[in-house]
Amino acid sequence: MKLATGLLPTITVAMLAFVPQGIIFPRVADGQTTAYQGPNLPIQKIGRDDLIGISVYAAPELSGSARVESDGCIRMPMVRKRIHASGLLPNELEDAITKELIDEMVLVQPIVTVSVVEYRSRPITVSGAVKNPSTFQAVGTMTLLDAISTAGGLTENAGSEILVSHHATTGDSTAHNITERISVRSLLDGEDPAVNLTLEGGEYIRVPVAGEVYVVGNVRKPGSFYLTDGAESSILKALALSGGLDSYPKHTAYIYRVEDGKPGRSEIPVELKGILDRKTPDVPLEANDIFYVPDAEGRRISAKILESSLGISLGVASLILYTTR
């Protein structure tokens, strides 16, 4: 490598006068060459806010690290022009830096090596019903299952779907936020590889908490039960997990359900004896339903009283209802 003829005084002045922010210079003894030693990160496209390591052979004054700025460019000492880095692979950025050093007559035959010290341009956020909600970088190839695993896996009260939001650009270069719904069962079963999305960074993954069904009244173990697998619950399933009926239940039970466009909860009578005797079909339950079994000898409690007391009486008795398709 040779310095361009007649440029030594200019280079000395530039080194003193032009030290852009965001660049870290190694301190070396005279005559030594420092090559940047970065971590062994997977090779992928450089993005905004990534930290780049630059090593120019036999030119320690040009070697160091630089953060990619918001406009996708980096700065280098003695180089007037900002060098575009976002969207390039490390070897492509090496070519861009080499060209700029020659074009601005800083070096005649520069040998440039670029590595990525830290990726910060590909954040993935996982929240909701996971054990360790967090934000991390998509380093290398990362799938939806990888992201869920990095967040500690699903909790027991995870719902039946995973929502994956990301930005997409249409043909008119307009950015839109798109949300995909992924079935938990399909993802975990692995029957359809397409649902295990490949993540590029910038995704927001949310795992909603499963809906609950409340079973109260003349049952052995009143409580709230999560609907975790996407299939509907039913009267018989709810009774099984609440320990069955207690002594002297009334033959008619009630479902209190919130319905769109109606105030309060609608009351739906259920012929409980007919369901238990297999003479009438089982009745499905929906998320947030209250299933109430009155005592045959007692007075029936209103939906409003049940609803106001659920937060206290059911908070200590929460079980998981695993439903099947």
Structure notes:
It is a single chain. With about 325 residues, the protein is of the alpha+beta class. The chain folds into three domains: about 10-120, wza like fold (2-Layer Sandwich); about 125-205, Outer membrane lipoprotein wza fold like; about 210-320, Outer membrane lipoprotein wza domain like (Outer membrane lipoprotein wza fold like, Roll), CATH 3.10.560.10. Helices cover about 20% and strands about 30% of the residues. The protein has seven helices and 21 strands. The strands form six sheets. A six-stranded mixed β-sheet has the order 18-17-20-14-15-21, with helices on both faces. The longest helix has 14 residues, at about 90-105. The termini are far apart. The relative contact order is 0.11.
In short:
The protein is α+β, with helices and mostly antiparallel strands and 325 residues long. The protein has 7 helices and 21 strands. Strands 18-17-20-14-15-21 form a 6-stranded mixed sheet, sandwiched between helices. Strands 8-7-13-10-11 form a 5-stranded mixed sheet. Strands 1-3-2-6 form a 4-stranded antiparallel sheet, covered by helices on one side.
